[in-house]
Amino acid sequence: MRFRPCIDLHDGTVKQIVGSTLSDSDRNGLVTNFESEKPPAFYAGLYRKDNLLGGHIIMLGPGNEKAACEALAAYPGGMQVGGGITPDNSHVFLDAGASHVIVTSYVFNNGTINRDNLERIVSTVGKDRLVLDLSCKKMGDHYVVATNRWQKLSSMKITQNTLAELSKYCSEFLVHAADVEGKQQGIEKKLVALLGNCSPLPVTYAGGIRGLEDLEIILTEGGDRVDATIGSALDIFGGKVPYADVVAWHRNHVA
What we know:
Blueprint: E1 6-10, E2 13-17, E3 32-35, H1 40-49, E4 55-59, H2 65-74, E5 79-82, H3 90-96, E6 100-103, E7 108-109, E8 112-113, H4 115-125, E9 130-133, E10 136-139, E11 142-147, E12 152-157, H5 160-166, E13 172-176, H6 189-198, E14 203-206, H7 212-221, E15 226-229, H8 243-253
Parallel strand pairs: 1-4, 4-5, 5-6, 6-9, 9-13, 13-14, 14-15
Antiparallel strand pairs: 1-2, 2-3, 7-8, 10-11, 11-12
């Protein structure tokens, strides 16, 4: 299990946002936990110094491309990037230093998976450099993939069969538990266990992590097969959990 760092960008600035409040129609309802005065390249440089590989930069809406490329340039080959990625712009971020590109909305149209788009992005960037974002919300007994900055639910449930089928097209999965993202109120244990039991590929979980105790829960529930990222809880993002402690935990547990 690894700690995977993150950089969330909104309007070109590093922010930590409560995921369930993202909306195209109501920006006044957006709940922001933290807004940094430091540029995104500062955080990428920090992760590079601590040799934390496989983190992700997420562009939450338009206007973040320049900031993302600056972060990628500060840690070439060390971070993935997602948010509005298509075959037409993927090369911009790969050329800027992204190790992988992350896609969701491009392959989900009108609530269903678009196989043609999935095939096109795979043929453009290659399976080995593609991460599928299966961020989700809980609906009844199931977790359903949510797209368009978690505003639109798809018809795809996260199951063993779904993960097996989609693993043919990518090298990793990224899964935000959108209902608890940014709330620091605890993780979705059932989702972590589902990913640990069923994912045939490396998978990173995000959402609700409050500190080292939740990393231990993910380690146990995920069977040491699920990586984790922490956002709002970290002191570098205005939280109370020392980033240095998380790095130390990572070094003691990395597989």
